[in-house]
Specification:
Arc Repressor Mutant, subunit A; Serine Threonine Protein Phosphatase 5, Tetratricopeptide repeat; three-stranded antiparallel sheet; two-stranded antiparallel sheet; 29 helices; globular; 4 domains; mainly alpha; about 650 residues
């Protein structure tokens, strides 16, 4: 399945055949969901976007359009099975397709990649050549469509200029003269396009034409706008006259035409991109580390501390996506903190300590490292409270939350941190941390089995994400909604286990491109295992299941499901203690279940002791993304096994 909106809106099957999307309103609904980039669009927003004066039955009409689109996009979906392309989320709908299957998303990701890596210039050229016309060309001029067309057209122009700049910087580009000449004619007010055209002419050996182009640009700007040319145009003219045009291969990092990046600008951009997820999130982490290393090379401790502490992106998951990179950031923060000493600026020390706490994700720490990280979290919180800096305190509380997984059974403690985060962020307009507060409280309520409260936090987080452009949030809340379906699949008249499995699969599809491998890998099989345990069924044993970091704790149950008891016993004996993260209660419950099945009383006793403080919680539900059911059930089995004989 592929959806294209760079031109008229259309959908294509895998074989390239067109999908009949229906009438103009159907295409407009699909287009509006594409524009949301996977985020929830509420029913009220869709109605307002489709009609200037909504009819009485507007909501019913919208549901009819959505139902028809679902039939068109998923013609082979079995009756009563949940849709996977246009999904219902809370008070609205969201489009769930990999970004590479939607042309506008693929273009944006390619453009972002080319900004960071000139080697992507070929892909950028391919994406630019694939445009069939203005974005959403057949969608009426609704306000949302006009905004999107304007935004995407600006990105296209940037893409044209970025591609030309990369080619010229690499010594190519003499054949760009005709293309850039037409570009300048259509967009004469874009100074970078004049510079690029002049450079292309110079590269083609047309020095006189290059100078004439720059003088024409000067005349147009002065005569029509009363503006002098910018510094880049003036420098290029001087360089051409002096025969000193920068040599081939003098490449620079660019965020767009004419904008060079320094370490501070880079980390600010990285912080912004991190909230977008996908390739932008992966790239933002890499750019952030590069900026930190560049700052360290200057030898300026204050600059380095500001660069390290500027990346105050809210984090809700306790397993690092790139442990090596996180360790590198922590090491740089510790070096800088030591260099500043105890008398260094308090705000810089607080940010460095908070960074150490946030980046030292509990899942990958030894006991000594965990102690240092927890101490850093407490110190950052204390300093931030003394400074009365709301944004700094929110960042410090993020570290406190991530370091609150020292043992099972701390959901209520985390809920208090989440409540303070939410209150602080709401009072001071810190929207991204308000989203974090909601997600922390969602996880805590989920762990405590309060699904109504958790659902309220999920709905609120989705609404906040729609206004803060945080597309990762609906990915996380989508998993939570699948967890709710799984929990309710055990009750009479509730959803079926098959419906829960399908919802987990849809959540897995959304997570695959979210740029969070530390969260993604192994989560889907673990969710299916939890669903099977809820229904007293054996573990799934499919050969293609990637258990990721959870394999040691799932393997004994998988082997038991394959009637390989002795191998299961060996695997159980080799189990280490679970990592101290969102899923430690789940790993202990899996250990307990395997020990009970195998009659291993010592292991059962160890699991029971670990789970005792979590008896009021639900296993795995502290992640907000899956559940194995009440901890009390596994605890009772483990204690009974330990007492037997």
């Amino acid at each position: 399945m592929r959806i294209d909106v760079l031109g008229a809106v259309r959908a294509l099957r895998d074989d390239g055949g067109p999908v009949d999307l229906g009438g103009p309103r159907h295409r407009e609904v699909l287009a509006r969901l594409v524009a949301a980039e996977g985020r929830l669009v509420t029913t009220d927003s869709l109605v307002d976007d489709l009609w200037t004066d909504p009819p009485v039955r507007a909501v019913g009409a919208l549901r009819t359009f959505v139902a028809a689109l679902r039939r068109a996009l998923e013609p082979e979906r079995p009756p009563r099975s949940p849709p996977r392309v246009i999904v219902t989320e809370g008070p609205g709908y969201a489009l769930r397709l990999p970004r590479e299957d939607v042309d506008v998303h693929r273009f944006q990701d390619t453009l972002a990649r080319a900004r960071r890596d000139p080697a992507a210039v070929g892909d950028l050229g391919t994406e630019l050549a694939a445009w069939r016309g203005p974005a959403y060309a057949d969608v009426p001029d609704a306000a949302w469509a006009q905004r999107e067309r304007t935004r995407i057209e600006e990105l296209r122009l940037e893409g044209v200029e970025l591609r030309a700049r990369i080619l010229l910087d690499s010594g190519e580009g003499a054949d760009l003269v005709a293309e850039l000449g037409a570009h300048v004619d259509r967009h004469p007010w874009r100074e970078p396009s004049w510079e690029l055209l002049a450079r292309a002419l110079y590269r083609a050996g047309r020095q006189a034409d290059a100078l004439a182009t720059l003088r024409r640009a000067r005349a147009m700007l002065v005569d029509r706008l009363g503006l002098d040319p910018g510094g880049d145009l003036r420098r290029l003219e001087t360089d051409i006259l002096n025969g000193a045009v920068p040599p081939e291969g003098a490449r620079t990092a660019w965020t767009g035409p004419g904008v060079r990046l320094g370490p501070r600008t880079t980390v600010d951009l990285a912080r912004t991109l991190a909230l977008a997820g996908g390739d932008a999130l992966v790239g933002s982490r890499r750019d952030r580390l590069a900026a930190v290393r560049a700052a360290e090379r200057t030898g300026d401790l204050s600059l380095t501390a500001r660069i390290i502490g500027a990346y105050d992106v809210p984090a809700v998951w306790s397993r690092a996506d790139d442990p090596e990179q996180s360790r590198a950031v922590v090491a740089a923060a510790e070096r800088t903190l030591a260099g500043l000493g105890p008398d260094g600026p308090v705000d810089l020390r607080a940010r460095l300590l908070a960074t150490i706490a946030v980046e030292s994700r509990s899942a990958d720490l030894s006991g000594t490292e965990l102690g240092r990280a927890q101490q850093a979290a407490r110190q950052a919180e204390a300093l931030a409270r003394d400074l009365a800096d709301p944004a700094l305190l929110a960042f410090a509380l993020n570290g406190v939350f991530l370091q609150s997984f020292g043992r099972p059974g701390l959901a209520a403690t985390r809920d208090r941190t989440g409540a303070e985060l939410l209150d602080l962020a709401t009072r001071h307009g810190l929207q991204n941390f308000a989203v974090l507060g909601r997600l922390v409280r969602l996880q805590s309520a989920s762990a405590l089995g309060d699904l109504d409260a958790a659902t309220a936090h999920a709905d609120a987080a989705d609404l906040l994400a729609a206004t803060t452009e945080a597309p990762l949030v609906p990915v996380l809340t989508g998993w939570f909604r699948a967890r709710v379906t799984a929990a309710r699949s055990t009750g009479p008249g509730g959803p079926t286990a098959a419906a829960a499995a399908a919802q987990y699969r849809a959540a897995e599809d959304a997570l695959r491109t979210a740029g969070m491998p530390g969260l993604h890998r192994g989560l889907f099989p673990l969710a299916l295992l939890g669903l099977r345990l809820l229904h007293d069924r054996p573990a799934p044993t499919g050969p293609n299941l990637d258990w990721g970091p959870y394999r040691p704790w799932t393997r004994p149950l998988v082997l038991l499901a394959q009637d390989r008891g002795e191998q299961a016993r060996t695997a159980l004996a080799a189990l280490p203690e679970p990592p101290r993260d969102h899923l430690q209660e789940a790993m202990w419950c899996l250990t307990a279940r395997a020990a009970v099945r195998l009659g291993e009383r010592a292991v059962a006793a160890r699991a029971g002791a670990a789970l005792r403080e979590a008896r009021a919680e639900h296993a795995g539900a502290g992640s907000g993304m899956l559940t194995l059911g009440p901890v009390a059930r596994y605890l009772a089995e483990a204690e009974a096994c330990a007492r037997a004989g």
